[in-house]
Amino acid sequence: MASYLLASPTFLGAILFSFLALFLLPQPALAISRHYKFNIELQNVTRLCHTKSIVTVNGKFPGPRIVAREGDRLIIKVVNHVPNNISIHWHGIRQLRSGWFDGPGYITQCPIQTNQIYVYNYTIVGQRGTLFWHAHISWLRATVYGPIVILPKLGVPYPFTKPDKEIPPILFGEWFNTDTEAVISQALQTGGGPNVSDAYTINGLPGPLYNCSSDKGTFDNTTVAGILQYKSPFKTPALPQFKPSLPALNDTAFAFNFTSTLRSLASPQYPANVPQTVDKNLFFTIGLGTNPCPKNQTCQGPNNSTKFAASDGRLPNQKLPPPPADLPKC
Ligand SMILES: *[C@@H]1O[C@H](CO)[C@@H](O)[C@H](O)[C@H]1NC(C)=O
Ligand SMILES: *[C@@H]1O[C@H](CO)[C@@H](O)[C@H](O)[C@H]1NC(C)=O
Ligand SMILES: *[C@@H]1O[C@H](CO)[C@@H](O)[C@H](O)[C@H]1NC(C)=O
Ligand SMILES: *[C@@H]1O[C@H](CO)[C@@H](O)[C@H](O)[C@H]1NC(C)=O
Ligand SMILES: *[C@@H]1O[C@H](CO)[C@@H](O)[C@H](O)[C@H]1NC(C)=O
Ligand SMILES: *[C@@H]1O[C@H](CO)[C@@H](O)[C@H](O)[C@H]1NC(C)=O
Ligand SMILES: *[C@@H]1O[C@H](CO)[C@@H](O)[C@H](O)[C@H]1NC(C)=O
Ligand SMILES: *[C@@H]1O[C@H](CO)[C@@H](O)[C@H](O)[C@H]1NC(C)=O
Ligand SMILES: *[C@@H]1O[C@H](CO)[C@@H](O)[C@H](O)[C@H]1NC(C)=O
Ligand SMILES: *[C@@H]1O[C@H](CO)[C@@H](O)[C@H](O)[C@H]1NC(C)=O
Ligand SMILES: *[C@@H]1O[C@H](CO)[C@@H](O)[C@H](O)[C@H]1NC(C)=O
Ligand SMILES: [Cu+2]
After folding, report:
1. Ligand 9 within 6 A of 317 CB?
2. In the predicted model, is pLDDT for residue 148 greater than 70?
3. pLDDT at position 190
4. Distance 196 CA to ligand 1 centre (A)
5. CA distances, 325 to each of 78, 94, 105, 118, 296 (Å)
6. Which segment, 95-99, 165-169, 272-276, 313-317, is predicted with the most confidence on average?
7. Three-class secondary structure assignment of 78-116
8. Where is the signal peptide (predicted)?
9. What is the 89 CA–ligand 12 centroid distance (Å)?
10. Mean pLDDT confidence for 157-165
11. pLDDT tens, position by position, 36-76
12. Which of 44, 50, 81 to mutate to test the pocket of ligand 1 (most atoms within 8 A of CB)?
């Protein structure tokens, strides 16, 4: 293209060429820090004619959208204003040496207690696409969740044809008319399964098919519907009664069939480096390090003279940094 333009140096061609050349120059990294504030607060929400107080981020249900580019740093200040202890997990984000910010309660951090603050701080490395964040303690994720959109680096196109129009992320969820913390604590006490939800939701809404959404009579209540509406100049016609026929809720084979069609990009630029043939059966053992038992103390590691220990990398640039000062304590 450039040589064609050079061979026919019209004025327009020259302008086009310099324009193109600008884009062909290597882009600076331009990674930035993006700051978000998550106030954990109660909000009264009504669904299926039931109003209840739920735990939310910034009073929103579902919660706010996080948008970043690959390579950016996310700095998310979480302030807990509710009686519940909470932690937030960034689902699918690879935490490379930033495990203190992964978020599962009692795994990488103690939960953030009432009136406490924790600042999650990590860089998005080598991944792009739409993920989500959610509370990661007890069942608070029932209402505390939202999308994370990771755009490619500036100047790098999408790894697929750019759509004509982008719509906000679609989040599937479930709605319970009763308090979800009561549902899980009852299940933990009885040892049975937790109660099933009262509705499935799209972006927090049960849609027009459920009772109280509007009067539509009986329907397959394992179905949730949403309406995608064009803005002017289009006018939405009267809605047809939409009753899709779907596989049974317990049709595991069908679900497996569907999920096994989901594939990574596996392009030369974004390869999926997985072995494609099994040519050897391997027997795996997992090793754990040990530390010597402190003097005059009894330990429960091998020989009663050692303590099991995990290694966190041999070289300084492989080691997990020490926990941040504001890492919540139990
Ligand atoms: C929720 O509703 C209750 C009862 O009406 C009210 O006392 C409370 O202030 C409301 N909470 C919020 C966050 O609006
Ligand atoms: C985030 O982490 C980086 C790297 O450790 C550090 O330089 C920066 O000060 C941190 N920012 C905040 C707001 O904690
Ligand atoms: C769970 O369902 C049972 C049976 O319908 C009901 O008695 C119970 O109150 C429900 N538990 C909660 C926490 O909503
Ligand atoms: C659907 O309705 C049945 C029968 O009324 C009920 O047992 C079940 O819990 C409902 N499921 C959902 C997801 O609403
Ligand atoms: C909707 O309400 C009707 C009448 O009260 C009831 O028969 C039906 O089972 C309800 N459907 C759902 C999905 O809850
Ligand atoms: C699903 O449940 C129905 C009854 O609830 C049962 O008849 C059917 O065999 C189940 N299907 C599978 C695939 O488990
Ligand atoms: C799985 O999907 C294929 C192709 O869509 C279809 O032919 C097959 O019947 C499906 N199997 C099941 C168990 O649903
Ligand atoms: C270990 O115990 C012995 C005897 O009780 C004592 O003399 C010695 O000082 C202790 N050593 C340490 C390191 O505490
Ligand atoms: C435990 O003791 C045995 C026998 O004395 C020894 O061979 C082995 O190395 C010891 N293991 C550890 C982890 O100290
Ligand atoms: C370790 O100590 C326990 C109890 O203190 C004892 O039962 C066990 O035999 C000891 N094991 C070894 C290898 O010394
Ligand atoms: C929150 O965590 C603290 C420390 O573990 C605990 O004492 C407290 O009971 C917890 N609060 C709730 C509401 O679970
Ligand atoms: Cu998750």
Report:
1. no
2. yes
3. 85
4. 26
5. 15, 22, 17, 10, 32
6. 95-99
7. EEECCCCCECEEEECCCCCCCHHHCCCECCCECCECCCC
8. 1-31
9. 6
10. 88
11. 999 999 999 999 999 999 999 999 999 999 999 999 999 99
12. 44
Tally: H helices and E strands in the chain: 4, 12
Q: What domains, with CATH codes, occur in the chain?
A: 33-180 (2.60.40.420), 284-329 (no CATH)
Kindly compute the dihedral angle of the four CA atoms of residues 61, 62, 67, 72, in this order, to the nearest 10 degrees: 100
| Ion ligand 12 nearby residues (CB, 5 A) | 91
CB 101, CB 92: distance < 8 Å = no
Looking at this protein, which amino acid is placed at residue 48? L
The count of residues in the chain is 330
Q: How high does pLDDT run on average in the chain?
A: 84
Which has the closest alpha carbon to 308: 286, 275, 282, 276? 286
Task: Tell me the backbone φ, ψ of residue 236, rounded to 5 degrees.
Answer: -70, 125
Structure confidence at residue 225 (pLDDT): 79
Q: Is any atom of ligand 6 closer than 6 Å to the C-beta of 251?
A: yes
Identity of the residue numbered 89: H
Distance CA 36, CA 298 (A): 47
Answer whether the bond into residue 233 is a cis peptide, omega within 30°.
yes
Q: Strand, coil or helix: what is 172?
A: strand
Q: Is the CB of 43 under 6 A from ligand 2?
A: no
* Nearest alpha-carbon partner for 222 in 195, 256, 197: 197
Residue 104 has which token pair?
Answer: 């599962």
> Which amino acid residue places its CA nearest to atom 14 of ligand 6?
250
Walk across the sheet containing 117-123 and list its strands.
50-57, 33-47, 73-80, 117-123
Amino acid at residue number 327: L
The closest of 164, 132, 125 to 147, measured between CA atoms, is: 132
